Amino acid sequence: QHKYCTAMVRALKKHRDAGPFLRPVDIVALNIPDYPNIVKTPMDLSTVEMTLKARRYADTQAFADALRLMFNNCYLYNGRESVVGIMAGNLENMFESQLKKMPSGIDTALAEHKRQSSDASARTPTSATRPKRDAHPPPSRDLPGMQRKKSRTTDPQMRYCLNIVKEFMKKANFNIAYPFLEPVDPVAMNCPDYFKMIKEPMDLSTIKAKLESDHYASPLEFESDMRLMLRNCYAYNPPGHPVHEAGRALEARFDAKWAEIPIDVDARSQESHVDEIRDLEMKVQTMARQLEELRRGDGSVRRRSSVRSATGSPPPLSASGSATHYHQGGTTMSPTYVSSPPPAALASTRGRGRGRSIESLELTLEQKRALSARIEDLNPNRLRVALMIIKSAYPDLNEEEEEIELDIDSLDPFTLRKLYEYVV
Fold first, then answer.
1. The domain containing residue 290 runs over which residues?
2. I need a labelling partner for 391 at 20 to 30 A (CA). Which of 12, 97, 159, 313 fits?
3. What is the pLDDT of residues 106-128, one digit of tens each?
4. Domain for residue 147, yes or no?
5. pLDDT (tens digit per residue) in 407-423
6. How far apart, in Å, are the Cα atoms of 363 and each of 371, 396, 412?
């Protein structure tokens, strides 16, 4: 019976769901300080195995009671419907099944535990004679290759990410987060093939350490590690397994919290800038449609464009003297006459030479003719900019008039020079 009990414990330790029961509960690592208040007599498989090796169980009933105590402690603290409770149930079913196959008869070696234990205690050195072990400082918690950067604790997004991990590590989420609290130990968890299947292990304590040491450059890197941890869970644990189901529950809770992450102010400013550009593009398209409607709506509207030269004779816009059509954004546009702006508006545009003399800004007759010829060949995008340059000299221009006439000499030298340099 003693040999059978020993084999039974070894088989239980190899069970896939034995992880939470292999060692005594670490209330600090698991962040469950109230555990001793609820569970008065802790028990685990390693303690049962050590007691069995020391032959301290009076009979098989005492051995079975110790294992049942371990399962009941789990149900008491976690509940039977929790992930750890389900794992305990699977392990208990295996135990009860093997217990029924226990050989009958009394194992004398198991019954002689008192003499064996007394002899062992006589040979055990006291604390006064036992040599002291060298004290070693705990290893650094910094991850390998981790470089300390400027603290991002003031970043609301990174603080939010850290709070997510801290909340998952609280007792309230213990039932679904337990398998992810610490790195997987293939030896302790009896899963020697884990690293053959999982090439990039990840867990909550590692993610927390990265956050606290400013390892992540952005929240997206934090999210990537969280997704990696969950993918590892699904890859190693098949659907229906308690750990797999715990991963699904944790993922659902993470998705809900991730959707509420604070908005980045810089990203919001960039989006606002993009919206402004889109609004301007829509206004340009609206103006193009209005011009097209004017062109189609009234056949009596004269579609011609001319620029009067400095001598008063308007140079033609095209070789044939007919109206020239420009295609802009898929809409046909016809340059129209632009009426002279009011004297006040014209006066306001005079003298804008930006440090250059009026004489150096004024165009010659040949330059004006070149401007007239080249403006007809502009593509839609460049034509739009040219119209904006002309618009800058006509702030009171009424774009809804059917006929708009442009007098080249009505433009101030600065605007005319600017238009020439852009077009020619």
1. 272-423
2. 313
3. 444 444 444 444 444 444 444 44
4. no
5. 667 778 888 888 888 88
6. 10, 24, 11
